[in-house]
Structure prediction request, 757 residues.
Amino acid sequence: MDFGLSEEQLLLEQTLRGFLADRVPITRVRALRDEDCPNDRAIWRALAELGMTGLLIPEANGGSDLSLLDAALVAQSLGHAVTPTPYLSSAIMLPIALRDLAGAEPAGWLNSIASGELTFGVAVTETFSVREGAGLALSGGKLSGKAMMALDSCSADQLLLAIDDDTLAVVRSGTAGLTQSRLSTIDSTRCLAELVLDAVTPEAVFEGAHDAIARMLDAGRIALAADTLGACEAMIEQAVVYAGQRKQFDRLIGSFQAVKHLCAEMIAELEPARSLLWYAAHSFDALPAEAPLMACHALAHISEIAREIASTSTQVHGGIGWTDEQNLHFWFKRIGVARHLLGGPEFLRGRAAELQQLTAAA
Amino acid sequence: MNLEYAERYQDFRLKVRAFLEAHKPDKSLLEAPPAERARWLTLQIEHGYWARTIPKAYGGHGAEPDLLETVIMDEEFNRAGTARGMMAQGPSMLVPTLLEHGTEEQKRRWIGPTLRGEILWCQGYSEPGSGSDLASLQTSAREDGDDFVINGQKIWTSSADTSQMMFLLVRTEPEATKHAGISYLLLSMDTPGIEVQPLRTMSGDLGENSFNQVFFSDVRVPQTSVVGNRGEGWKIANTTLKHERNSLNANAEGTLLRLMKLMHSETVNGVPAMASPVYRDRLMKLQARVLSMKHHGMRMLTCSLKHESPGVAGLVTKLQNCQLNFDIAALAIDVMGELGGLYDHTRYERDRGFWQVHSIFSLGLIIGGGTAQIQKNIISERGLALPREPKPAKA
Ligand SMILES: Cc1cc2nc3c(=O)[nH]c(=O)nc-3n(C[C@H](O)[C@H](O)[C@H](O)COP(=O)(O)OP(=O)(O)OC[C@H]3O[C@@H](n4cnc5c(N)ncnc54)[C@H](O)[C@@H]3O)c2cc1C
Prediction:
């Protein structure tokens, strides 16, 4: 029994954070916001070289077959560095879905993800939230309809689509009948798009994929919570550094209790949430019966504390925090958009209650 | 990360469970007569469910520390709805302090009876003029032959009226600087010259812990009652406070289950509270916080067993847990609506008035043992290395 990270996990985190500080500093993130899609292939390939893209992929497919906790630590570091990369979709959700579908791997997709040659967009929003009349239907082997807020699809090679909560399909980017339009959000570090399909021929269709979809969503929620937690860490670090440098009234602002207590409140929320995240990620592999509930709670709770932290850190910076130049807004916006990507807090708490049969009374 | 329970732990759990089924008393410990309480605690120590890792020579069970065993014991005692050992100032604050700083003689004399609940202790730190700024305390202990002679006043002293002993802070070196003049003493409450005056608390007569003022006039105590060295009381008190903060880790998980039961049974307009999406949403928010603090506790325990510093994470526990307990009680009271204020075993009162008592008690814990604001000072200054408040210029 050991509730903590292993030496290997700490090393993985250290390696990755070193790499990101060096190769994807905030100036690079800033430059990428002007691209059509911020998901830079060079970053993805470098992550693959570090072995990061294959963490959840079986060894037989060139991965290292590690646990979701390992992958969540990567997601957390990527959030910490606001790195634009299709890690959530391609290195977490896609492998979990394919791993769970027996015989789903004819095309060597997993191998190509582990090696960094391939990325996948993932469209699952409609399994929990339908807006703007979105939804997909399969008829006579052809796919039609619309999917909203597809993750990382713009520069992806393949797309994984949930048609309903029991059916998945893979569609190649650029296939006839598929139109993608990027939906710009305030968060320039994450690629989100609308997909419109008009009689598209899928590469593959997986029926009876209910469990695969559910597992993919759980893993995605835990990883997204990790991304947000990492972004929170970075915002707190910046606030503390700033409070220790900026002077007003001949004093460092960090010596004002009004300011230092804001910092204390942020870290007091963050640290227990980190423990919750570790447990949720650990449960995914070790205690799978608990994972759906833990995924909902981890993402809902971390999204809630993150909104406060994002706002508080910005306030500690005063006016400069509100500028483009200070860069703080990259984290603020990553946190803000992530809050609703795989289900917002209210939805997730409703789901958490359902999972415990607490709604039966209604 | 490995939370698997090896087979020997599964056996251990079954043993604890069987023990509880066979022996669990039906009265709460503090209500039980002292002899009964001592019997139950002694039985727990013999079986190793209380004072498990404290050396046999001092009245403990003498086992090696084992995190999982601790977790299992806590879980099983909680499940059985009974306290493991005794949550009181003696075992949770004085015993660890004596183990760390006491003389061999002090350890042999005090630890065993304290663990068995034969001696109850109160903590004499706060004074009317010295609360958060504890080091400014004025109660003096003047050297006189082999004794100290104590004069002054303590306040907010929980359970002073029912305790046999007090551990307290006094100023022994009036010439020394603020922090350096303080000593940590052990004092019998029977000593002539001590007067205890109970204070009524905001919970009225229902609160389990009494609140008191204690006056000292020419109270004699042998100099051998000092723990650690003379003048080092401040340092030693800080270890005690650390243990106090660790022990303020109330069982929020059990309280949340109780709240869920209430939400199923409590109805308004014929509809159970649990059927209300609004209350349910608040419940789920609290459940996520309870889960966070539960796993945070496991993380902190892992750190202490590995002798690793948890860093700033170790400083946030008291602040977060106390507020969480208050918020759980707040939802329970809201769910009961206009009946939530019932008190004093009035008709229609739910859960024998537990929720108002719990609410008021939790509020006390937010203040006691270092207020929330003081916790935030500690977190930001020690944990985040933010600059300290500048001292006001001397006039
Ligand atoms: C339920 C309960 C049980 C207790 N049991 C005991 C006991 O057994 N033995 C014992 O010795 N004491 C006990 N106490 C006393 C407790 O330790 C003190 O009440 C506490 O330390 C605060 O001191 P104070 O009451 O003098 O308040 P003050 O220190 O006067 O504080 C008043 C307000 O000012 C704020 N404040 C003070 N200094 C600062 C600062 N530097 N920065 C920011 N804010 C500040 C505080 O946070 C608080 O909000 C108990 C208290 C309670 C509520």
